[in-house]
């Protein structure tokens, strides 16, 4: 009887523990299924929000389950939610304007990414997995970016004007820093989260460590064995963010640290086999470069105005 009694007690305790676990799982599921926002009838769940916020939370070293960090976590959530709302508004606007991004176009972008990194499909998927991303998620991100750029081109870009006088004035002021861009390569370091990126960047800036050596030692990008070389810059295919960054650089320049996909990174613009900046551009060669440089801040100002117009017309219910 004693053994039977002990067994009964243990069984009872186990049942109670299982019940508590079920309640905890149910509460967690309810929290994840909770609606964070509704944008013109389209729902964003807390699960969607938390997943999208993971890179930002990781970079800030915040734990969403730590009550002591709740205020800081909420700031990140609201920032990410704002971006998600804008993505939805732009997707809805793309649909209204009959702007699309086809599967074949996304396939082409994926193929380009694999070629640039010199990876086959399996290697590429393995690299994505290391970053906590699937191919389907990357395809969705690429489609969102394509639609965003096309809506911006249709509704923002065509309304931005850069005059010949502005281009000429910029050239006269900066012609000593505008160099031939043919054959220029882009080097990229995506720093391992476990290294001191700022210390390494300081060594690169001082010349005590070359960019190529730093890439081989500390980068987690697939091109690290090639010293970070991403190959020739395809100027006509750059998205606005990278175009704005690279257009401000001259051959030999290395950027300050910036963030890409939640990781600290640096870019090096260089011409293989050449240490100097190269031949200065003529005015006609520099014209499209200067046009892009001057167009970017105007486009961003116009985009901010356009974004606010979309928000004003939308029905947005935030429930955080």
Automatic annotation (TrEMBL):
<protein>
    <submittedName>
        <fullName>Survival protein SurA (Peptidyl-prolyl cis-trans isomerase SurA)</fullName>
        <ecNumber>5.2.1.8</ecNumber>
    </submittedName>
</protein>
<dbReference type="GO" id="GO:0003755">
    <property type="term" value="F:peptidyl-prolyl cis-trans isomerase activity"/>
</dbReference>
<dbReference type="InterPro" id="IPR027304">
    <property type="entry name" value="Trigger_fact/SurA_dom_sf"/>
</dbReference>
<feature type="signal peptide">
    <location>
        <begin position="1"/>
        <end position="29"/>
    </location>
</feature>
<dbReference type="Pfam" id="PF13145">
    <property type="entry name" value="Rotamase_2"/>
</dbReference>
<feature type="domain" description="PpiC">
    <location>
        <begin position="158"/>
        <end position="261"/>
    </location>
</feature>
<dbReference type="InterPro" id="IPR050280">
    <property type="entry name" value="OMP_Chaperone_SurA"/>
</dbReference>
<keyword id="KW-0697">Rotamase</keyword>
<dbReference type="Pfam" id="PF13624">
    <property type="entry name" value="SurA_N_3"/>
</dbReference>
<keyword id="KW-0413">Isomerase</keyword>
<keyword id="KW-0732">Signal</keyword>
<dbReference type="InterPro" id="IPR000297">
    <property type="entry name" value="PPIase_PpiC"/>
</dbReference>
<dbReference type="InterPro" id="IPR046357">
    <property type="entry name" value="PPIase_dom_sf"/>
</dbReference>
């Amino acid at each position: 009887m004693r053994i039977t009694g002990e067994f009964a007690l243990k069984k009872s305790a186990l049942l109670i523990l299982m019940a508590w676990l079920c309640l905890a799982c149910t509460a967690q599921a309810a929290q994840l299924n909770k609606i964070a926002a509704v944008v013109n009838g389209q729902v964003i769940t807390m699960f969607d929000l938390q997943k999208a916020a993971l890179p930002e939370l990781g970079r800030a070293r915040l734990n969403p389950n730590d009550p002591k960090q709740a205020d800081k976590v909420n700031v990140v959530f609201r920032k990410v939610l704002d971006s998600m709302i804008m993505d939805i508004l732009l997707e809805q606007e793309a649909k209204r304007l009959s702007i699309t991004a086809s599967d074949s176009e996304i396939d082409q972008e994926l193929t380009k990414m694999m070629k640039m990194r010199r990876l086959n499909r399996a290697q590429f998927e393995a690299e994505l997995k290391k970053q906590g991303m699937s191919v389907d998620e990357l395809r969705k991100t690429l489609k969102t970016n394509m639609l965003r750029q096309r809506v911006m081109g249709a509704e923002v870009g065509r309304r931005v004007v850069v005059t010949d006088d502005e281009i000429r004035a910029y050239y006269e002021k900066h012609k000593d820093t505008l160099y031939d861009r043919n054959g220029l390569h882009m080097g990229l370091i995506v720093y391992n989260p476990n290294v001191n990126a700022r210390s390494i960047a300081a060594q690169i800036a001082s010349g005590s460590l070359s960019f190529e050596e730093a890439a081989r030692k500390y980068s987690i990008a697939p091109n690290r064995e090639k010293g970070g070389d991403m190959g020739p810059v395809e100027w006509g295919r750059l998205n606005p963010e990278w175009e704005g960054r690279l257009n401000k650089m001259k051959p030999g320049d290395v950027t300050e640290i910036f963030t890409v996909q939640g990781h600290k990174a640096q870019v090096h613009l260089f011409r293989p086999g050449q240490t100097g900046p190269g031949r200065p551009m003529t005015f006609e060669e520099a014209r499209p470069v200067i046009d892009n440089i001057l167009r970017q801040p105007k486009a961003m100002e116009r985009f901010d105005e356009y974004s606010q117009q979309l928000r004003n017309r939308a029905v947005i219910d935030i429930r955080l």
